[in-house]
Design goal:
By secondary structure, this protein is α/β, with parallel strands linked by helices. The protein has ten helices and eight strands.
């Protein structure tokens, strides 16, 4: 029997990543997208953290009521805002398997972002996760400046080109990308070079297959 998964995204560009990543499994995906929330968080000074938290919880509860077997949240900012929410179905947070992979690394590493407003929430969650695993991480955070506006305005090709160019310069340390929108660029650099780049999509699929007992299509 197919698993029904409700996917909550901050931008439409994330849909294809999830569809392709889970295409080999017997799942039915429903996508829920609200790019307006992050626009307000970044640009509306009257829109408080409490307003944003309330909106994310409202969105998740809406997805749950659509009759899914699990909810997948792909936006790291949404995850940071949500915190803990009791529901009758599993809530899968894309960053947790990614954090697990980072905690297995015992050397200096660099985490790349394009959205500066995602950094604080993601890094706070990573440090809390590492503390729970009794791990100490040596991490440098870098933001690829002036790129996130490209993906938010639908300029996906230009966005990927900027991220690819930046990634190709990062060959001295263990590198990962923290946002789903950066996965395409990371995969391109891996295919063109010998560099391994950790990305949250690969770790997510591995975790979901195990957690939800997903079956491969026959």
């Amino acid at each position: 029997m197919k698993k029904r998964i409700g996917c909550l995204h901050a931008h439409y560009s994330n849909i294809d990543y999830i569809e392709i990543a889970l295409s080999a499994y017997d799942v039915e995906l429903s996508h829920f997208v609200d790019p307006g929330l992050m626009v307000r968080v970044m640009s509306d000074s009257d829109f408080t953290d409490a307003d944003a938290i309330s909106r994310v919880k409202e969105q998740v509860e809406w997805v749950v009521r659509s009759g899914v077997d699990a909810v997948l949240i792909t936006c790291t900012n949404y995850i940071a805002l949500l915190g803990e929410l009791a529901t009758n179905v599993p809530i899968i947070k894309m960053d947790e398997p990614y954090f697990e992979a980072l905690c297995e690394i015992d050397q200096p590493q660099t985490i790349l972002f394009t959205n500066p407003d995602t950094v604080r929430g993601t890094m706070n969650r990573l440090q809390q996760y590492a503390k729970s695993k009794q791990k100490t991480l040596e991490i440098e955070v870098q933001v690829i400046e002036n790129t996130f506006e490209l993906i938010m305005s639908g300029k996906k090709a230009e966005y990927q080109e900027e991220v690819v160019d930046f990634l190709k310069k990062q060959q001295q340390r263990v590198v990962s990308v923290a946002q789903l929108s950066m996965v395409g660029a990371a995969q391109q650099v891996e295919s063109e070079t010998s560099q391994t780049i950790i990305n949250p999509l690969h770790t997510l699929v591995t975790s979901m297959v195990k957690q939800l007992n997903l079956k491969a299509k026959e």
